[in-house]
Amino acid sequence: MTPRTSRGADRARYDRATAHLDAPLALVDLDAFDANAADLVRRAGGKPVRVASKSVRCRALLERVLARPGFAGVMSFTLAESLWLARAGFADVLLAYPSADRAAFAELADNPKLAGAVTVMVDDPAQLDLIASARAGGTQEIRICLELDTSLRLFGGRIRVGARRSPLWEPDRLAGLARAVTRRPGFRLVGLMAYEGHVAGVADAVAGRPLRSRAVRLMQTAARGELAVRRAAAVSAVRAVAPDLEFVNGGGTGSVQHTAAEAAVTEVAAGSGLFVPRLFDHYSSFTGRPAALFAQPVVRRPGVGVVTVLGGGYPASGAAGPDRLPVPYLPEGLRYDPREGPGEVQTPLLGSPADDLRIGDKVWFRHAKAGELCERFDTLHLVSGDRVTAAVPTYRGEGRTFL
Predict the structure, then answer these.
(1) How many helices (H) and strands (E) does the chain have?
(2) Domain residues of the chain, as ranges?
(3) What is the pLDDT of residues 86-102, one digit of tens each?
């Protein structure tokens, strides 16, 4: 596990490092980022970690982590992003979601470099039809990955736990689509993915909620056991159709060590574990160090125990709720006004630390999710120790907003 440093010491470091910069701004603590990366590799137990780009959204940091032993390949989130990364030199890009981007498929089918670097996701024959119709004369073979639905189904399927992703739950249905891919010219089946979000992305040790946490742990134990058996059967069924399958991808930040232990899995995926946003604070399987933060400036002091910062209303995706909001992190002890919350253009913060803050001081926040922070900022200031060592563009800073 990667030990946390003192929050007070971190605040002092970040304030010193960015004293010459006006907020709003975003930073990545490279000491924490690198420690988190090392912990992911340790938990993967010798299997390569494919980095999820949606949780980073910064080319410089993708390059940094891929230069480390133990990481190999990118898991992307749109086809346009996949082609952009491949054009920039990323040689192994797995698109984790099906696409309907006909123009991008036409480019993929017409470019040997891109076709060799990018693998696209399919879980329905209709997606193959769309790709074939979009070729526009392109002759390159399209690399295909199939996705197995990982949801836990109870009581004959009447209860489902897990994200609604692929329709392919049964191994024989997955093998059926594998046969459809191998029979069609212009496609090559190279991979299988099974992302268990209900295991990898749900906190199981939430402070103050012992009963819910225990229920989550029981669910995850059952889900891991069921999926390990079904995933092995699915891999065996698909390999019977495509013996040269290159990879079987699974896992996520919260389940790296469990998924990597399955013999059928050849690689694991992770991304949020590099930044460690607030949604990843309450896991029994690992403890990371918060590495990505943003600062908002104090612009008002409405009264005793209150300051107002500029902006800050950056909710994360998912079902709306308090856990999707950024959290004031430094100085420790600030909280939202429950009648206002984080606002579009201003955010009042309550608590005794407010009385020590002056106009222009920075309040540091943590986003609820990882890469979505980068949709709000065009630059990440990279901090090592108490110095900014570089300022690198996010996807947004490079003029790229893929989704």
Answers:
(1) 12, 19
(2) 30-276
(3) 999 999 999 999 999 99
Which residue, 109, 115, 7, 94, is CA-closest to 48? Answer: 94
Whether the model pTM is above 0.85: yes
Cα separation, 49 vs 59, in Å, equals: 17
pLDDT tens, position by position, 121-173: 999 999 999 999 999 889 999 999 999 988 877 777 777 777 788 888 789 99
Q: Topology of domain 30-276, per CATH?
A: TIM Barrel (3.20.20)
Read out DSSP for 161-173? ES----S--SHHH
Which of left, alpha, beta for 245 (phi over 0: left; psi -120 to 50: alpha)?
beta
Amino acid identity at 58: C
- φ, ψ at 67 (rounded to 5°): -80, -10
User: What's the token pair of residue 241?
Assistant: 């159709």
SS3 at position 27: strand
CA pseudo-torsion sign 201, 202, 203, 204: negative
> DSSP code of 313?
-
Find the DSSP H helices in 279-365.
none
